[in-house]
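Hi V.,

Quick status before I head out on leave. The structure for the redesign project is tokenized and pasted below; the design run finished overnight.
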């Protein structure tokens, strides 16, 4: 085939996916996670790794089969990312010797010192009251806290993953709330399109299930409090939804210039045809009431892909199970797809794995690509009481359908909206 065969209608390199790696509460790797997703099994359970006494929410989609000690978000995020990257690189047969031929784009949770470390620093001053900063400075100067400094320094997770897998250039560490994982993929796509690289390693990872995060989200009234039956707590698009359930995990995608991938004999798992983003300065946590930014992000992704709405076979929704988010997403889908919104299959992986925050966009992109490869749409479990105000075709049981093109939505606090169009073949 000619070189032009691996270009889109705008003359840009086609972006192929040649490797996928997954870690979720459903298991380690593509096979375990995909099997559980399509069978409708939940990974949400009672939290066992720390005491939840006194907490309003005591459940989460935790990754309990990997070491989670010490319970520090950057360290867990790094562990999940490394496992996902190893699987993706092995499948792509690229960079398995620590010599990945392109940059790293990694979405991580906001890196800040957590309560146990803050307490230890306060104790180091020898004061039970206000922190004695002179005493703290003396304690820090001894080198006793150097490891903490490295651990909580923003960008440390990216630096360690980059060193481990030998990615090129300065790694890009980003955090755009719940759209972060999708943003990491978008940055990889743009780097290849600009000709800056022929390949990119894109990761979304999050290990933030800890008491502090649960309390913060509870104060926002964002979390479900259905603790008695954890697997039934996350109910995206159901009329009786009452909030999201925290989850954790990671996904890694190896993106390549399609021409370069074919030239080296790689197996192409799918394509990223389009990316769309739209910022929304309406509120720190709420969406703009008119849904304009969400609508604009969806339309931008379709425009970038060169596709009409009719080309989308299914939507992998952001679908958090919060009353407002699901309503706003339904509004956006209805505005873009019109009458077809009532018959367009929509599913939410968060019903089974919870909301993996900065990892969500990457995990759901990976699930979308697996849906394309296997011709199966995973269900939205716990969808027993449809919300008539939404008017969507929610996939309550797995559907076997030819899936050629998926719209994957990611909408975050602070108006961070990113949508991806993933496909089996070029447009």
């Amino acid at each position: 085939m000619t070189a032009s065969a691996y270009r889109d209608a705008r003359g840009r390199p086609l972006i192929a996916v040649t490797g996928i790696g997954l870690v979720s509460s459903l298991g380690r790797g593509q096979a375990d996670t995909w099997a559980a997703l399509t069978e409708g099994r939940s990974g949400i359970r009672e939290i066992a790794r720390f005491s939840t006494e006194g907490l309003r929410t005591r459940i989460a989609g935790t990754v309990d089969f990997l070491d989670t000690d010490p319970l520090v978000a950057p360290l867990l995020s790094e562990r999940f990312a490394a496992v996902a990257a190893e699987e993706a690189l092995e499948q792509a047969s690229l960079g398995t010797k620590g010599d990945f031929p392109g940059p790293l784009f990694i979405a991580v949770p906001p890196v800040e010192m957590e309560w146990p470390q803050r307490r230890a620093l306060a104790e180091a001053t020898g004061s039970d009251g206000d922190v004695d900063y002179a005493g703290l400075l003396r304690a820090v100067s001894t080198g006793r806290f150097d490891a903490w400094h490295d651990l909580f320094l923003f960008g440390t997770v990216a630096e360690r993953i980059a060193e481990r897998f030998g990615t090129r250039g300065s790694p890009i560490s980003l955090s755009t709330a719940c759209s972060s994982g999708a943003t990491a993929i978008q940055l990889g796509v743009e780097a290849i399109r600009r000709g800056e690289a022929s390949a990119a390693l894109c990761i979304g990872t999050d290990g933030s299930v800890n008491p502090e995060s649960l309390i913060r989200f509870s104060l926002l009234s964002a979390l479900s409090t259905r603790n008695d039956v954890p697997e039934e707590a996350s109910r995206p698009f159901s009329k009786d939804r009452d909030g999201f359930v925290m989850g954790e995990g990671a996904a890694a995608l190896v993106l390549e210039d399609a021409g370069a991938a074919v030239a080296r004999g790689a197996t192409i798992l799918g394509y990223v045809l389009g990316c769309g983003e739209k910022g929304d300065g309406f509120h720190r946590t709420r969406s703009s009431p008119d849904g304009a930014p969400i609508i604009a992000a969806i339309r931008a992704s379709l425009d970038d892909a060169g596709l009409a709405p009719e080309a989308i076979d299914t939507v992998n929704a952001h679908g958090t199970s919060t009353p407002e988010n699901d309503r706003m997403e339904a509004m956006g889908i209805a505005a873009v797809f019109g009458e077809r919104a009532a018959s367009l299959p929509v599913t939410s992986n968060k019903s089974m794995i919870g909301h993996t925050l900065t990892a969500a966009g990457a995990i759901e992109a990976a699930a979308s690509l697996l849906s394309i490869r296997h011709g199966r749409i995973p269900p939205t479990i716990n969808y027993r009481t449809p919300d008539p105000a939404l008017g969507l075709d929610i996939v309550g049981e797995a559907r076997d359908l030819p899936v050629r093109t998926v719209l994957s939505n990611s909408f975050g606090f602070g108006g961070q909206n990113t949508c991806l169009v993933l496909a089996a073949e070029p447009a």
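Above is the designed sequence. Residues 73-92 form the longest helix (20 residues).

G. will cover questions while I'm gone.

Best,
W.
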